[in-house]
Design goal:
Layout lengths: L5 H26 L8 H9 L45 H27 L10 H11 L1 H24 L24 H29 L3 H6 L14
């Protein structure tokens, strides 16, 4: 308050005290019992106009109860529970966001599986190295460049598919790839269930792979080694890594 100084500061102090006094009176009145002689109509009106917990208008999100549900998240997409604390759905097309989420999630599922297989099994004619070191070896040997080259071709087709999605001619993430026939025949009725399962596994895999990598950097242990021989952060709790 002293920053403002003078009469303005004193006015703010008076206003602040007044607000505190009114809040105290309102809190006490909320716990005061109703008079025994009050007519039923009066008590009924008081109950009707009782204060509600939701001070602001609009519905609140199922996943983040203290935030409003974003306008563009209407629950029509599988796995949509109104979670968008940064408001991306208010800026970008929701179909583009779902396309990106599925793409990154599918890559993360493959990466998570590959990370674990790399630790548990070694292909013939290859030496056993931790997954993070294997990445560095591929970069030095040029293997990662080949992966990026072929991935770029896939991105070209993905870009064409994305334009079709924006135009409404294609469902986000649908490449008509279903070798097991999970969306056909007797399984057609469970297609939405499979879509929900996929997006849940996508989100879990993105979190899991990020945890695998950061754990490897900090503890210098693999996932299975960490499970069998837990080692906290070196120097914990004194050490910091930021």
């Amino acid at each position: 308050m002293a920053v403002f100084g003078g009469e303005f500061s004193e006015t703010l102090i008076v206003m602040f005290r007044t607000v505190l006094a009114l809040a105290a009176v309102a809190s006490a009145a909320a716990f005061a019992p109703a008079p025994a002689f009050a007519p039923k109509a009066v008590t009924r009106a008081a109950a009707t106009h009782a204060p509600r917990m939701a001070v602001f208008g609009g519905e609140f999100s199922e996943s983040v109860p203290f935030l409003k549900t974003p306008t563009n998240l209407d629950g029509s997409l599988p796995g949509d529970v109104g979670f968008d604390p940064l408001g991306f759905s208010e800026v970008f097309d929701i179909k583009v966001l779902r396309e990106a989420e599925l793409k990154h999630g599918r890559i993360a599922m493959l990466a998570t599986l590959g990370y674990l297989v790399q630790e548990a099994y070694v292909l013939p004619f290859f030496e056993k190295v931790p997954p993070i070191q294997a990445h560095d070896m591929l970069v030095k040997s040029g293997g990662m460049s080949q992966i990026l080259l072929w991935t770029s071709f896939l991105e070209i087709f993905g870009g064409i598919a994305l334009f079709q999605t924006i135009q409404g001619r294609r469902y986000p993430g649908d490449f008509a790839f279903d070798p097991l026939g999970l969306s056909q025949g007797n399984n057609a009725g469970k297609f939405e269930q499979y879509q929900l399962a996929e997006i849940k596994h996508c989100r879990l895999a993105m979190i899991a792979f990020s945890g695998f990598v950061h754990q490897g950097f900090i503890t210098k242990q693999g996932v299975f080694e960490q499970l069998g021989n837990f080692k906290p952060i070196p120097g914990f709790p004194e050490a910091t890594f930021y």
